Amino acid sequence: MRAEIIFTGTELLLGQVLNTHAQCLGQELAALGVEIVRHTTVGDDWEGLTSALREALRRADLIITTGGLGPTSDDLTLAAVADVLGLPLVRNETVLSWIKEYFARRGQAVPENLTRQAYFPEGAIVLPNAAGTAPGCIVEKEGKIIVSLPGPPRELTPMFEDHVVPFLSKRLARGGVLNFRVVRVTGIAEYAVQDLLRDLEGKEKVQLGYIAKPGEVHVRIAAVGRDAAEAQQLVARMLKEVRARLGDYIFAYDEESIEEVAGKLLAAKGYTIAVAESCTAGMVAARLTDVPGSSAYFMGGIVAYDNKVKEKILGVQTEILRDKGAVSPETAAAMAEGVRRLLCTDTGIGITGIAGPTGGTPEKPVGLVYIAVAVPGQTVVKKYNFPGRRFAVRQGAANAALKMLRDLLENDGGSSP
Amino acid sequence: MRAEIIFTGTELLLGQVLNTHAQCLGQELAALGVEIVRHTTVGDDWEGLTSALREALRRADLIITTGGLGPTSDDLTLAAVADVLGLPLVRNETVLSWIKEYFARRGQAVPENLTRQAYFPEGAIVLPNAAGTAPGCIVEKEGKIIVSLPGPPRELTPMFEDHVVPFLSKRLARGGVLNFRVVRVTGIAEYAVQDLLRDLEGKEKVQLGYIAKPGEVHVRIAAVGRDAAEAQQLVARMLKEVRARLGDYIFAYDEESIEEVAGKLLAAKGYTIAVAESCTAGMVAARLTDVPGSSAYFMGGIVAYDNKVKEKILGVQTEILRDKGAVSPETAAAMAEGVRRLLCTDTGIGITGIAGPTGGTPEKPVGLVYIAVAVPGQTVVKKYNFPGRRFAVRQGAANAALKMLRDLLENDGGSSP
Questions:
Q1: How many CB atoms lie within 10 A of CB A49?
Q2: Could you give the CA distance from residue B189 to residue B176 in angstroms, rounded to a whole number?
């Protein structure tokens, strides 16, 4: 089933209101297995609304409209729906009695323009509004379905979930169901991710998509199956292949918060942690403490931006800084072990690198970062080359450090002494 | 001028990403006096994109596209623009040299698919990308203008403001001219801001708008004048009144980066800085070092989450922690002075507070934060009550600390010894 969503409201066009419906309806429809082909936003005018409806009717089987169901003169949606489907508007006596009751309870007469809300395209299924006075409706004609929902999120959401989802679920039992997963990688540029996956694109009805964000790239794996099980299986099979190709670049899946996962592992093992950061300068500490309750395991950190801080506070040896340089695996390891010693914790992280824009050399270019994680019994150091600019390099390094911590804790057999 | 915006990205259709461009572009175009008649969102597919462009060309004079400028095979925007306008794609040697330089600085060869980003519809004005590798462009043909911008907000916003607004302003010079300023406040809730300004709303053709963000509220002052001078004067007059009402809650104006302003003041005075953070746990250090070149004045920091770190590393006296508590003006001052002594800097910041969700008491509720700033000759401590949840409290505290630093440096007559 191909669907389009039409959002109405001049306030959306002018940016006075953020359109959050686009996200929540998009997610819910995708989850139902509806293929969404377009979103359109038009103002509260007859011409804009009816032309958008007519065009959508040519392309899609299902059209969802939001807004324009109220009692004022700029609420045109149901009249427009009736018009484009060639149906008359007829008065619904049940709805009229709801409106009368609503005002009777308040000891008021029904305002004249409120009775407008009792008129629907002929044959419409009326959807009650749990949080307002304007009902929505579903109209079907010649294989096309138009669902009209109110604009306010607190009215739209329950109406959609309570009435539209059950209706569509029945209709979609025959159609395909969509499943998707998101794989999040760091330390590699978007084009290089695609190079690794290009030959998998379009295989077995599975779609691959790429989204670049500062310090990470999202790979979206999506498939439509005959049912939920088949869709899930198609995605799972491709996910396995993608994991094999991207391996160590992967730091998280879907909406997973890596700092929360790492925090839970620390808490479960009874480990405490401290961090020593140079180029990320507090970003890893801030991420770890973004998790409520992190004070149980996070003791503190040293932002060792200047070399004197690395030397004097963290105890990185002068010889290491002089012979290997501040950006070296040796310095990263000495930082991780130094902060662990200084703050008397079980685990430590050390990060040193070149965020740019200046400071790069042919041997040590912008983007080069060494990350060390010290857990009881071992210290692991890794070298990364993060693509992008200053902020992306720093974000990438923070993602990679949290991933290294999680991996080490997952594979760590020991527990706190 | 009638305009439409076309957003591209399957992730937008599926609701994986919230479309914030719809709001910010809507506001900026409305501010310029452009009449926005439609927003359309399509996926990363040729058919959807070219049909949306063709339809929009029939209705509008100006079309703005977002997304699809990257190097991967699902980035189709410029090819689609060229196709619907009947123009060839031609290689831009300047852009090609930018791409080559970017990779040369990293000691890498240009990946093959990256050269795609040097092809533009014939005659296009290329728009440099201050925060990424994909340039945007403006193409004009037979009275129609198509502006293509990148998808990531960090790239789109500066490109739009620096290149598209001046371009459109020239074209639109005949209509009314809009001017606006944004006043950014912290430490106060959105409803309380509105309470302070309510009687000013709608006065003298000036519009006031409010946007709540984590840790800050934006007050937007906008006015349309017959010419730029009149619009500016209307806004300036209202700004003066708003400043008088909001006073010390104001921490920044417009897009101003407070960490950059504070950094410039430090550099000008030859001062160095160190920070000691408890509840913000590295956020202020990360903000200060977001500025390229900050290593000239930023030495480092201590994330003193656990009290032992405050005591052992920063030298906060046991008696202060015992008698006044970790969240107290005395502890904040001792942290600022302690980190300044420890890292031998001219200035220091100390932050301690209760970010929540737990840890609050009737005397010391969630949101209570003490911030101390030590400059040569004086240490100033302030008490704040930040509204909102954990992340908002932390962001608010970071904003307030940077504001206190700037204010003190601006009013500080001395210079480094």
A1: 25
A2: 34
B225 versus B293: which is more confidently predicted? B293
Residue A27 CA from chain centroid, whole number: 10
Superfamily of domain A2-172: MoaB/Mog-like domain (3.40.980.10)
CATH code at B2-171: 3.40.980.10
Q: Which is more confident, A177 or A35? A: A35
pLDDT of residue B416: 43
Helix (H, G, I), strand (E, B) or coil at B263: helix
| Segment 12-51 of chain B within 8 Å of chain A by CB | 12-20, 22-30, 36-44, 48
Q: Note whether A295 contacts B304, CB cutoff 8 Å.
A: no
Is any Cβ of chain B less than 8 angstroms from the Cβ of A88?
A: no
DSSP A237: H
Q: Looking at residues A197-217, what average pLDDT do you find? A: 84
Structure tokens belonging to residue A154? 């607190």
Distance CA(A356)–CA(A365), nearest Å, equals 9
**Exposed / middle / buried, residue B247 (Cβ in 10 Å: 0-12, 13-18, 19+):** exposed
Residues in chain B closer than 8 A to A188 (CB atoms): none
State the pLDDT at residue B233: 94
At the topology level, CATH places domain A177-253 in Alpha-Beta Plaits (3.30.70)
Q: Determine the Cα–Cα distance for residues B38 and B296; give it in Å rounded to an integer.
A: 49
Q: What is the mean pLDDT of residues A300-310?
A: 97
Q: Tens digit of pLDDT for each residue in A113-152?
A: 778 889 999 999 999 988 777 899 999 999 999 999 998 8
